[in-house]
Amino acid sequence: MKRILILTIIMLFVGFNLFGQASGGTSTETLVGSPAADKIGIDSAQQKLIDIGITKFEDPGFWYASMPADIGMITLRRRAGEPAAKIELDKERLDNEALVNDPVGKFVLGVKVNFYKRAVSNFSVYPVRPLPIPGKSKTISLWVIGRNFNHNLKIQIQDYFGNNHELTMGKLNFLGWKKMTVAIPPTIPQSDYHFTSRMGIKFSGLKIYCDLMEAYGTFYIYFDDLSAVVDLFEEENRDQDDVIDDW
């Protein structure tokens, strides 16, 4: 009887210990079939993320600017130069573009604003037509010289259905070149499950909201190398015999 009682106590103790580990006690082992937290979105997601160039602002004739006529005058001009840090930070993308004979570019787009008076105002820089971005965009980046003003830079895009959106890139209170980046929120539609022939958003312009305390005198700003990180998985994994809806 004593032996049976001792064996029963041992079995109960071992059973309770195993139950505690399986229910999330102190065990660090991962249960079979459960996803690893550090792998979610890496191995389990079907993505093909690529950094692609959208425009290098080489041709000033492709751009135009606007601002309220009673507030000031705005001028566009192509200027020689480029951010030195771009060669290192964007080396992989620039090397890939060079392989397809896309020139790196030695010019930037300069914008000059002469304020007539201090006022709450804004000005915009637009391409002649919106620039399409293939795939599903994750982030959009832009090299900017802000001249250390508190003006606020926003990027304008069109979603899959042609609706306009503005995303804040940040304040221009820095000296020299800076790569500014904004994430594309999932609330902006970039595709429609009914159609597979096209997807993505379009870049439609830049808008600068001026800080009232610094909206006077002359303001300069320079832009270079607009790029995006996009997911091309769906673009490159379509059925080869599918019919394109372009008629």
Question: What characteristics describe this protein?
Answer:
12 strands, 247 residues, 38% strand, 6-stranded antiparallel sheet, alpha+beta, Jelly Rolls
Which helices and strands, and how do they pair?
Elements (H helix, E strand, L loop, with lengths): L1 H21 L26 E7 L7 E4 L5 E9 L3 H6 L1 H9 L7 E9 L6 E6 L3 E3 L2 E10 L6 E7 L5 E8 L5 E7 L17 E9 L8 E14 L1 H4 L11
Give a short summary of the structure.
16% of the residues lie in helices and 38% in strands. The chain is α+β, with helices and mostly antiparallel strands and 247 residues long.
Question: Can you give a write-up of this model?
Answer:
The protein has 247 residues and is α+β, with helices and mostly antiparallel strands. 16% of the residues lie in helices and 38% in strands. The chain has a single domain (49-236), classed as Sandwich (Jelly Rolls), CATH 2.60.120. It has four helices and twelve strands. A hairpin with a 5-residue loop joins strand 8 (152-158) and strand 9 (164-171). The longest helix is centred in the first third of the chain and has 21 residues, at 2-22. It starts with a helix and ends in an 11-residue tail after the last helix. Mean pLDDT is 82; it is low at 18-35.
